[in-house]
Every structure is written in C-alpha cells, then in structure tokens.
Amino acid sequence: MSYNYSYDVIILAGGLSKRFGIDKCCFEVNSKTMLSRLLEQFDNPIVVSRSSRRIKKGILVVENGEYEGPVKGVKEGLKYVRRDRVFITGCDFPFLTRSFADYLCSKPYDIVIPFDDRPQPLLACYSTGLLSENIDKINGLVELIEFSSTVYFIGTEELFKIDPLLYSLININSIIDLIYRPIRIKTRSNLIIR
C-alpha cells in the first residue's frame, strides 16, 4: 500500500540509551541493527547522531556540543529538510514500516500523531513550516501541539488498518521491551482545529 506522499524523514539516533545500557541504534534485532532496519524503509533519511555512524544511505548529521534531547536533534535535521512534510522518529522504533509513515504523512494536517495511551511525538508527521517557526520555542516535540492550527491524533482503531499488529508503535527502551509487548489501549482518531 503506497500513498505517494512526498515527505522527508528525520531519524534521531543520538540518545543516551541510559535505560538500554548500550547504544540502542547498534543493537541487533534478527541480525539487523535497529538503525539499519529503519534505513531499509526510507529512500534518503536524515540521520541525526551524536557520533559518527556508518550508514548505507541517507544523510548523516553529527550534533556538536552537549546533549540536549530530541528537540536539538530535530533542529539539526531540519537544516536538510527540503519538503513540506517531515516524518520524525527515533532509531528505537525498529519495526516501523514505510507504509505507516506514508499513511500518516498523507493526512493534510500540521501534525499527525499516533495516540494510544498518550501522544507519540517521536513517531509523527509534521508540517515543516510549523517545525521551523516554532522549534526554538519548545523543550519537547509534544509542545508543538499548542502552536498548531490542526492536529490529527490518529488512534489505534485507525492504525490497525495499516499495521494490524501495531508493531510500528513498539518503542524499545530496554531489553524487556523486545520480549513483552504492552497492551494497547483502543483509541479513536480525533481532529483538533483551532
């Protein structure tokens, strides 16, 4: 299933991996690193890291200075975004599929963000203009909701249509997350227009 929607992709690969214990992006799941699994899904992703990494395709952006979290990584990645929409994720969503990102970015809203028990700002599609205009005003990506005129909270009921097992929502923060899948709350999609 392809939606032919044009968007850029930023993969954040520069976290501290404190809960995981080692660099998550280099951890192998079924003989592939979590980062390489994501790289296979997208044509020319922008990978933002705190250290040099070998990537087979895409653009590698190495952050300088102190670690300041995902917002700093997004700010660095935005310098290379050329399209009106950008899908943002972290390397710790190793089961994310391109069709999932295509579906979210096919929606014509400022933010399209999955919502199960809470919004997932590191697995969402954003208007590049919204990001560029407001990135210096926020400490966390979820704060962009306040600056947006349209936010589509995409619920699990709708996401089941494109990812029946909701694997794309699996966030790996510890080894345990590879074994135990959280019970997903059944949520409905909700559009907010201001």
From TrEMBL:
Transmembrane segments: none annotated. Signal peptide: none annotated. This is Molybdenum cofactor guanylyltransferase. GO terms for biological process: Mo-molybdopterin cofactor biosynthetic process. It comes from Saccharolobus shibatae. Pfam families: NTP_transf_3. InterPro entries: MobA-like_NTP_Trfase, Molybde_CF_guanTrfase. Keywords: Cytoplasm, Magnesium, Metal-binding, Nucleotide-binding, Nucleotidyltransferase, Transferase. Residues 9-132 form the MobA-like NTP transferase domain. It is an enzyme of class 2 (transferase). Its EC number is 2.7.7.77. It comes from the Archaea. GO terms for molecular function: metal ion binding; molybdenum cofactor guanylyltransferase activity; nucleotide binding.
